[in-house]
Amino acid sequence: MRDEELVKIVPSERQARYQELEFYAFVHFTVNTFTDREWGDGTEPESVFAPSRLDAMQWAAAVKSAGMKGLILTCKHHDGFCLWPSKYTEHSVKNSPYKNGQGDVVRETAEACRAYGLKFGIYLSPWDRNSALYGRGKAYDDYFVAQLTELLTGYGDIFTVWFDGACGEGPNGKKQYYDFPRYYEVIRALQPDACINVCGPDIRWCGNEAGETRPSEWSVVPLRMKDTEIIKEKSQQEDSNAFRERKLTAMDTDLGSRAALEDEKDLIWYPAEVNTSIRPGWFYHTYEDDKVRTADEMVDIYCSSAGGNAMFLLNIPPTPEGLFHENDVACLQEIGEKLRAMFAVNKAEGAVITASSEKEGFGVENIRFEKRSGGEDAEGELPVSCWIPEDAEGPWEVTIRFDKPETVQTIVLKENIRMSQRVEAFTVEAETDGGVVRVGGGTVIGYKKILRIEPVKAESIRIRITDARTVPTLAFAGVY
């Protein structure tokens, strides 16, 4: 496929705004928290769910302290226990000791998110190991859609619906083949601004749960990448040649380079989400209290994921009391402190910025300040103000010159994704008293690229875009 066709692929409004979130939380909480398991089997009595000090405001405050912008709650995990009083099952908080059956953890969490300025999202497992309808086709889909509708209509704005592909046999010994297109239709009708993640058309899984991302995380990928997520469960029983020819998985190393897309006819914008947990498990276990990951490790993952053209979803599991453990809270606070310190002063804001050339109306001054939708510097939607060079052929260069030598250790670059993903290769050079030295580089920039380099005392920083699908864009360049 030719480059001019590649750059026609751009994000939807909901995708573009979602990528701005960058960093948000997962909260895994259900009967597993009380049975000390990771996956429940649906036979747990409702009486086991008995948090004594549940405080969703504490969750939201801790999430906010880390610099996260949203929270996704496991409203129903594979065990089928609902954290809201669903009309369609008895396996829910309405039959638990929590608040004498009058509690609604989903509502409490949604309200806490609003109080702290966080987006609220839902996880609803399509696999329900408690439901007698599971494995019975449309009858189960009707049940699932009814619960999905409760969540989408009763708790305000939802920023994401998060599906995974977990699937097993029902009581009748048959698997349930999820009617994902129907689920998507309901979400689009009831919450049109919500993204549908992982097993969905908007945001894809990065391919692991370790917080690792590819060196080149492309947003423009083959349409069959999405098809595979929808039909992958059928592949376990339908091992056809047609499927093998279509197969493309989230674990593939290269999803979007020119070489990978050369023979592809249908492409989509499908950015990656990187998910991991602050502890080894997804649900709380007392024996993991001393295994909370360090803030430095979380900052590293943030820089490689949110700073690698993906989004970072970090899980924090509440204790049986219904609180985040003090070790997790301390880690979140430290993450926020480290990130705020890292990006406190953008040395490019007061520098002289020049470019090898600039197209009329798209001058290099547009890269001086980071813009976000609805923010103080925003005019309309996502940043359409950006630098575009006049020269049709590269390399294209931007130079950021300081009044005096500055110590530089982090560089942030952003393309204007409204105009697709264009940059294929770039380098960053520093002018020092010993001459010009290469300090970093890469392939993908996309929504955001964070380069952490060995500290260097520089008189100027030069960004050289050496390869692009068409004339490149830069929406922001920050030096820290």
Structure description:
The protein is of the alpha/beta class and 480 residues long. It folds into two domains: 3-342, Alpha-Beta Barrel (TIM Barrel); 352-479, Jelly Rolls (Sandwich), CATH 2.60.120.260. It contains twelve helices and 16 strands. The chain has helices at 3-6, 13-21, 32-35, 56-65, 105-115, 138-154, 180-190, 223-231, 241-246, 258-261, 295-305, 326-342; strands spanning 23-27, 70-76, 119-124, 160-163, 195-198, 204-205, 220-222, 267-269, 272-277, 310-315, 352-355, 396-414, 423-432, 435-442, 449-468, 476-479. An eight-stranded parallel sheet has the order 5-4-3-2-1-10-9-6, with helices on both faces. It starts with a helix and ends with a strand. Mean pLDDT is 92; it is low at 228-246 and 374-383.
Task: Spell out the blueprint of helices and strands.
Layout lengths: L2 H4 L6 H9 L1 E5 L4 H4 L20 H10 L4 E7 L28 H11 L3 E6 L13 H17 L5 E4 L16 H11 L4 E4 L5 E2 L14 E3 H9 L9 H6 L11 H4 L5 E3 L2 E6 L17 H11 L4 E6 L10 H17 L9 E4 L40 E19 L8 E10 L2 E8 L6 E20 L7 E4 L1
Parallel strand pairs: 1-2, 1-10, 2-3, 3-4, 4-5, 6-9, 9-10
Antiparallel strand pairs: 7-8, 11-12, 12-15, 12-16, 13-14, 13-15
Helix pairs in contact: 4-5, 4-12, 6-7, 11-12
